[in-house]
TetR family transcriptional regulator (Actinoplanes xinjiangensis), 196 residues
Amino acid sequence: MPQSPATQHRLDPARETAILDAIRELLAEVGYDRMSIDEVARRARASKATIYRRWSGKPDMVAAALHGLMIDHPPLPDTGSLRGDLIAAMTGFCRVYERKQPIVLSLLAAIRADPSLGRLLHEHVLSTGVTETAAVLDRAVARGELAASADATTLVEVGKALLWHRLLLSGEPLDQPWVIHVVDDVLRPLLGVADR
């Protein structure tokens, strides 16, 4: 489990960024199993003691690095319509997922070998996007496009599942025609919106 805020040691933001960047680089280059705390420390020019004061170990560090990558996107724009907002949101999430694909591929074998790592990553990644999506849905309710606020968590889970399937299984591009298909044929009907 991730450390509670009370037990985490806060680092200087620049130092923490350097460590998280080193983790992401090493995951993409050598994979989870071959990534070592020693090499993270060397690459980030940090001591192992500094790293262990902030994170309990490799799984916690990797979850934080992946979480940081997931939330590193511009704010979702208000396009004036639910459909436009969903297209903009899915397009933004596609760019984030494209950037993290090499990291995720490096984690697949490790997750199978260590289910607790998978659970930890799920906890960190699932929460990303829900707050922004809830704001998109609230705007749609205020504009009268939705009768009542919908379940943002379910919408995000479905969207992420489709993104992962496309990236990891089909290998097809996360292009604009695909985004529009997902929004019009999956997400909007899930919200009970059928018109275009």
The domain at 73-190 is CATH 1.10.357.10 (Tetracycline Repressor; domain 2).
